[in-house]
């Protein structure tokens, strides 16, 4: 996965900088998400991996499927990706673009895994606390994990906060054994 990110990052950065300079992040975000879905479609994967098609033919097929969903600039971006044999990277490019966008907007998607459903008041308190700790606007999404005994596990980008009972017991065991 790291290799895909390494290959996709320059393209995602270029698209992000272009969109940011044009003050059009939302449109580019939508277009890249659409292109990522198209690139993952089974029929399109066959087109993109076909050795009998030239880069221009792959780009033409791709753009025909996207139809009017892409602006002229986004179509040019797709053509550049095709010329460099990077169309299969579109899902990764889209994900990286969203990370750049979130960093610019000072927001972060946070996944909170719990053993049971959290009510709205607790979710709001948690979002407020995480917002202060992460210094960003926080969008909380909860997931029920029946493997947890209690507590929560918070994942925000590369930050993991393990407040689960199992995590605390593991820390206690480590402390006692050392």
UniProtKB/TrEMBL annotation:
Indicate how the chain sits in the lipid bilayer.
Peripheral membrane protein
Q: Answer whether the UniProt record assigns the keyword Acetylation to this protein.
A: no
Signal peptide location in the record? none
Cellular component per GO? plasma membrane; proton-transporting ATP synthase complex
Q: What does this protein do?
A: F(1)F(0) ATP synthase produces ATP from ADP in the presence of a proton or sodium gradient. F-type ATPases consist of two structural domains, F(1) containing the extramembraneous catalytic core and F(0) containing the membrane proton channel, linked together by a central stalk and a peripheral stalk. During catalysis, ATP synthesis in the catalytic domain of F(1) is coupled via a rotary mechanism of the central stalk subunits to proton translocation. This protein is part of the stalk that links CF(0) to CF(1). It either transmits conformational changes from CF(0) to CF(1) or is implicated in proton conduction.
Q: Which family does it belong to?
A: Belongs to the ATPase delta chain family.
Q: What is this protein called?
A: ATP synthase subunit delta
Provenance organism: Oceanicoccus sagamiensis
């Amino acid at each position: 996965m790291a290799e895909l990110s390494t290959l996709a990052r320059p393209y995602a950065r270029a698209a992000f900088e272009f969109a940011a300079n044009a003050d059009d992040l939302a449109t580019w975000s939508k277009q890249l998400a659409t292109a990522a879905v198209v690139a993952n479609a089974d029929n399109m994967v066959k087109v993109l991996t076909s050795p009998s098609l030239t880069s221009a033919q792959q780009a033409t097929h791709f753009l025909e499927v996207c139809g009017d969903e892409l602006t002229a600039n986004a179509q040019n971006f797709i053509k550049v990706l095709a010329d460099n044999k990077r169309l299969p990277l579109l899902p990764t490019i889209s994900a990286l673009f969203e990370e750049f966008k979130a960093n610019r907007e000072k927001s972060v998607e946070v996944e909170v895994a719990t053993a049971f459903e959290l009510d709205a008041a607790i979710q709001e308190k948690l979002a407020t606390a995480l917002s202060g700790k992460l210094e960003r606007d926080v969008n909380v999404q909860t997931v029920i994990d029946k493997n947890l005994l209690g507590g929560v596990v918070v994942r925000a980008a590369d930050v993991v906060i393990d407040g689960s009972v199992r995590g605390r017991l593991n820390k206690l065991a480590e402390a006692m054994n050392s």
